[in-house]
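As a warm-up, study this chain.
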Amino acid sequence: MLPEKQKTAVRLLYSEGRTAIEVAALLGVNRTTIWRWKQTKAFKREWQKVRNAHVRQWRKEMGYDQSGREWTAELHRLEKKVEAEADKIRDGNTKAFDAAWNEYSKHLFSGWQNVQKRLKVR
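Now compare it with the structure written out below.
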């Protein structure tokens, strides 16, 4: 288990983006102490936990959580529908293909709009 001071160092370094010199000053230790802590397995494990939490949060904010997977699955379903309708165009009737393509395009565009909105929020 990592001492509280080292957990604070991890948070300051990786969550707040502070430098080792800043963290050392805030914690009242020498910057070489921060370097030594960074070399230990326990510190690295704590950093990994913090990093994973940030990645999970980012994925959620960017729509890569369950709703993102559902959106992707729907996109794949629509791609198959477009391909199936494209195979039927031989007889000259493109209405079904056009409808499938429009549905696919709208879905794709809505996903892109959501990503853009999320990026603007940041």
